[in-house]
Specification:
The structure is a homodimer. In chain A, α2 (about 45-60) packs antiparallel against α6 (about 170-190) and α2 (about 45-60) packs across α8 (about 295-305). The first copy, chain A, has about 400 residues and is of the alpha+beta class. Chain A is elongated and about 80 Å long. The first copy, chain A, has a 5-stranded mixed β-barrel with strand order 9-10-13-11-12. In chain A, strands 20-19-21-22-23 form a 5-stranded mixed β-sheet, sandwiched between helices. Helices cover about 30% and strands about 30% of the residues of chain A.
């Protein structure tokens, strides 16, 4: 993309928000705050979000079918599970003015999670043991009226979520799938560039099971959670469930995913059972599996930045290459334009900084935006290309052929 | 995809809904009604929806930058334009229970359209004539509390929408872009397979302009609108604005897109102007441009089906090929499995009907689901492949090499 044509601008203002990710992502023109916990995605931010979601999608497709459930649901769905009065982030909709009220005064629930939706949906298609197991997932906007929102994209009232739900004929089958989902999640966080810093911590299973749930926690100074490491057993715990008597190494972390055994809580509420091979009705066991793509985006910025700006892993950077042209001489512009086209032909994604701004601003925006490789074409590079990694200090002058080997 | 692994099933029930698209899409397991005007997308339906959205995205990217604005907005945004009390489909959110109310009793508007969001967003980045024109679009879920919903995906309370907004330094610049957008829309409807049946009809510009707006209307017996054709001037009008005194040829049509001149209504409300080349403040002219991908999906089913089921244009079919294996003999299954893998290698998308159901059900599901090509492998095909077009009657026995030339 030519930056001169792209909507959104980096800002020079030194406005500091409540978190590094909110500050850098807004300074770099990736996101824009509408109100606390509610952010617009500008083109550069949407590119990153889309890449994160596509990596998640590719890996989820190996174990589940993608669906798209609705945000609105009837109140009766939430009464069925008795959660209508207990979920403290639950919102409902109603007409916003008198005219709307006169025409249709219906109220709906705005789903903050989808157990209430997916259970009756899957129930429509599952009758016997032959129809199990089932696993479906979606990538979607979720709405939660969190009392406190802070930390930029790390906790929002409107945010992106991948949620998977699985349904099983036996506890054994559930457990096997649950273990498999851990491997899928590990692959996802590896590909997102935070695999090494992300650990599985045991956490409370909540009201529906005596089992632990499992949180994927990225070690991060600015994370909201404290996790405890038991060196003897090589196990991490969320502080909430860490046995008091033991001595732990504690550290801060940010939750990037979680997986939950749900037992038969929801299937029972919906009277959703199946006929087993012996012709008898049997309970269905369920699990839920979440990753927040927008939250992950925030956590990655918290982890990967320096004084100059963000440092994106190649897999989710808005582009692979940031190409700067300096000077307006016809030869220079022609070389830069040709390089831009040639890189695109080679399948490279390029942010081409062809704006009419100072070289200083281009260099500082390249660092702020945080694309893996920076290229410069100017009169001084004399037909060659100046190459620099975002994470390196040295520049080198290379030919086009040499460049292709480097990126 | 192997149908045995895919979530969702075709149903044998003869349940008839209020429209052909709702009936066929639910019978074929593409969508699932949650409540009136609110539908879940199952895997096959989501594949079609995603293909429609990607075609729209590719074409929109030639004229605008993609963003993702939020569904929640503060009430003040809608007060700024005085539309808070006049939009009759406007919904607000509030806490759904007492516990939620105690923790955070904020109310938000659930955006049914995004003029109120995009105007202050673009305002943040536009100061002088050098920053204009701007055009941004998003593809997103919209919420409208329509008094009446019917016709399946053709009119929903929660639906998918592509909305673009453009901002211009002069009326001339706006008009040039507006004309260009018509060409972009024509390319989109061509690629979606309804180009020939889709005409531009003049319609009311609404409260903000004396100009006509332009509706893209697909000629369709079951459409909600009536359009009038003036043979003298070769012009279509929405019936609402058709001059009474003239004699028109009238026909039913379904609106699949619309483009609107907005004048300076919204920019004025937000005190959003720019500094022109002479250093003076000048007004900014705006347009909005919508296409509803889910609505388009419904209209295409209305237009393209027969007694046996849906007939998808290749560009948006859930797959190119529906491969049926008949019989459980090892040789037959091996041939079908190998053909499935080989077609995937060739980049073809395949629905592989490997289910343990009768041949009759496989044939009838192939027609119902409406993929362009049907292949059969059985003992009878004797190492070859039976080929049939969804729209044709004849079958032919072909080798793999011959098949590749046909599809």
């Amino acid at each position: 993309m030519r930056l001169s044509k792209l909507f959104g601008k980096t800002t020079r203002t030194a406005k500091v928000y409540d978190s590094v990710n909110a500050t850098l992502l807004q300074k770099a023109g990736f996101i824009d705050m509408v109100m606390a916990g509610v952010y617009n995605y500008l083109p550069l931010g949407l590119m990153v979000l889309t890449k994160i979601e596509n990596i998640i999608r590719e890996e989820m497709n190996t174990v589940a079918s993608e669906v798209l459930m609705t945000s609105l649901s009837p109140r009766s769905f939430w009464e069925q599970t008795q959660r209508i009065d207990t979920v403290d982030v639950l919102m409902k909709t109603s007409p916003a003015n008198d005219l709307a009220k006169q025409k249709n005064d219906s109220e709906y629930i705005l789903n903050p999670t989808h157990e209430e939706m997916v259970t009756p949906l899957v129930q429509k298609f599952v009758f016997s043991y032959k129809d199990l197991p089932q696993a479906v997932y979606q990538i979607q906007t979720k709405f939660r009226n969190e009392p406190r929102v802070k930390s930029g994209l790390m906790r929002g009232r409107e945010f992106r979520m991948k949620d998977m739900y699985s349904f099983h004929a036996s506890m054994d089958d559930f457990k096997a799938f649950y273990e498999k989902s851990k491997e899928v999640y590990k692959r996802i966080f590896d590909r997102l560039g935070i695999g090494k810093e992300t650990v599985i911590a045991l956490a409370s299973g909540g009201a529906y099971t005596k089992e632990y749930s499992h949180e994927f926690q990225t070690i991060c100074e600015t994370g909201e959670d404290t996790i405890c490491f038991d060196e003897e057993t090589n196990t991490y715990y969320n502080k909430e469930v860490a046995p008091q008597e033991k001595k732990f190494k504690t550290m801060r972390a940010a939750e990037v995913g979680n997986i939950f055994p749900l037992g038969d809580k929801f299937t029972k509420d919906w009277k959703f059972s199946y006929t087993n091979a012996e012709g008898k009705e049997a309970p269905i066991y369920m699990g839920s599996y979440g990753i927040g793509p927008s939250r992950v985006m925030g956590v990655i910025v918290e982890k990967m930045h320096d004084e100059a700006g963000m440092i994106w892993p190649t897999s989710i950077a808005p582009a692979e290459v940031y190409l700067i042209v300096i000077g307006k001489e016809a030869d220079t512009v022609k070389q830069a334009d040709a390089l831009y086209e040639e890189l695109k032909k080679q399948g490279k994604s390029v942010l081409y900084d062809d704006r009419d701004v100072s070289p200083g601003q281009k260099f500082s925006d390249a660092d702020l935006i945080g694309v893996p490789y920076r290229l410069v074409v100017s009169k001084k590079t004399d037909g060659k290309i100046e190459f620099k990694k975002r994470t390196g200090k040295e520049t080198q002058l290379v030919s086009f052929e040499e460049l292709l080997k480097l990126i």
